[in-house]
Amino acid sequence: MSLIARFQDVMAALKVYAHHPDPRVATANFFALLVASNQPFYPLYFYWTVGPDIGPTAWTFLSTPFFLAVPALSRWNTLIGRAMLPIAGIANTLLSAKVFGVASGVEIFLVPCAVLALLIFRPHERWIAAYPLAAVCFLAYALFHGAYGAPFHLYSEAEYVALLRLNMMSAGGLTAFTALSFSTLLAEAETAASAKAPGGGKARD
């Protein structure tokens, strides 16, 4: 079997694994696998943009199994499965802040974690999961910023500038992609609602 064929088989298997009839759950599954699939490349991004001291990036792999578990947990319990996505993200962010130091700007990833927490749950689930998880993001920053102690590895000022840029761009891209994904879900829901409305697919005023 060729490398391309194997890659296609893996992608097909991941698509099946992420599938769920609930579009919010399926979107959460997709984001979890997206993050997990990007984590192995983080040391390369780090090497190219920051410098050769990539050893500390290995700590970020501790969260990979939790991201990968999101679709499986969602099949067992959709609420717990979706909650695992921001929980894993928050835990990975706090660990990374300890590993790299707050000068790395890695705490910015608490923003997409909070945004995801507010979007992947339905209105009746907000007080159960969405609001508490979003609050944890803000509390984590308020309580732990400046309280991590010495990082596992100190980088130069120039390296920290590059690392801050990398984290800002990554977190900004993830937040924008989250907004785009849920905007698409909303558009699809509006289209479905219009199709069901009386009058040839046009909703009444």
What's the SSE blueprint?
Blueprint: H1 3-18, H2 23-38, H3 42-49, H4 64-68, H5 70-76, H6 78-100, H7 110-119, H8 126-144, H9 157-196
Helix pairs in contact: 1-2, 2-6, 2-9, 5-6, 6-7, 6-8, 7-8, 7-9
Report what the structure shows.
This protein is mainly alpha-helical and 205 residues long. It is built from nine helices and no strands. It has helices at 3-18, 23-38, 42-49, 64-68, 70-76, 78-100, 110-119, 126-144, 157-196. The mean pLDDT is 89.
Would you list the SSEs in sequence order as H and E?
HHHHHHHHH
Strand content: under 5%
Count of extended strands: 0
The Cα radius of gyration reads: 19 Å
First-to-last CA distance: 57 Å
Shape label: globular
Find the structural class using helix and strand composition. mainly alpha
In short, what is this structure?
The chain has 205 residues and is an all-alpha fold. The chain has helices at 3-18, 23-38, 42-49, 64-68, 70-76, 78-100, 110-119, 126-144, 157-196.
What attributes characterize this protein structure?
mainly alpha; globular; 70% helix; 205 residues; 0% strand; 9 helices
